[in-house]
Amino acid sequence: MQRLRYRHLTAALAATFLAASPASAETLYIEAGRLIDGVSNEVRTGQCITIKDERFAAVSACGATPAGASRVDWSAFTVLPGLIDLHTHLADLGQSADLAAPMKASPAETALVGARNARVTLDAGFTAVRDVGTYRGLTDVALRNAIERGDVPGPRMWVAGAYITIPKGGGELNGVVPNEQLPPDMRLGVAATPEEAAAKTTYLLDHGADFIKTIATGAVLAIGTEPGAPELTEEQLRAVVKVAHARGKKVTAHAHGAIGIQNAINAGVDSIEHASLADEATLQLAKKRGTWLVMDIYNGTYIDEEGTKEGWPEEYLRKNRETTDTQREAFRRAVELGINIGYGTDAGVYPHGLNGRQFRNMVKYGMTPMQAIQSATGRAAVEMGREDIGAIVPGRFADLIAVKADPLADIAALEKIDHVMKGGTLVR
Q: Is 3.20.20.140 the CATH number for 83-384?
């Protein structure tokens, strides 16, 4: 049965890749109906974008098509930078009621599933992602490399390689077999001491990780851990940060509970994932330190609705109920305080390609539509430390989306993208 599943998956992916062969690179002159550049609050009309050698060359008032360029008429569309999701899990099987699913799939099958996930994510208008960990260590590195070589279609990926987590913590596959019997590639980041945490950080960076993902508290979707309970200590987190920052790499922390969030911020991490139970003091600390928050405030709805239908473990559903509303109110307060907030969905818990569903919640819980857009474009690029994506300005990669509806009037327009371009190549 497993072999048949693998053959069907491989055939489906081959068909996808053949259908997605990119057009040859050329100079393009794109006429935008309305232009949102990802960094300013201005909406411009009558603008044309020149693209050359995969990057934006100019943005100016429309005129005659430059010699040698092809004109693209998007005058009926709102044109924006390609979207960025700061919290995805492309190189993984996705959440289900089967706790053992990640172990049943080989690294090769996991990578193939990741390729499918990458394609649908790109189709959804997300031209870049920060992929924040996989149970099968380093499959995300392999997927990123395959996309960069042009072997498979997908967004630009920045990957963590594996989770830095305590034994039996929120980054482990608990409840399947004794953790010591898990395959070695599923425990690449397990660390019990600051010294081990530093060594595992070095290992992941040496093997292709772009940044480091730490597990500072228990998790909603991990057996035997509680979201409010601290896991990695401040000393362990500090050891990770020291190694990563010395090599110019950022560190993010999965952290739901206030104490774990504070430990991570005090240790010097660059961003916090989830922040579900952040209290006022914790949010004030994040504001003071300039720490970014990436809060998946659509995710709880999907877990409650679909997880209940599919029979996910009751422990998961209970912890989700205990964190969803609290997280959304913490998000609202974070917006009021002006804390740095980036767009991150936890796609992989819910199906890839639905990444745009979170925009509506971000507006519902306090952001303006423009703030929500910038959290997934220019602001997300700042969080990642990238100056080559996230905005329609000369010199950056020519990643674009186009939608017929006006997302400033109805942010849900970003749930269905009409056109996608990555590096000047039309995806659809």
A: yes
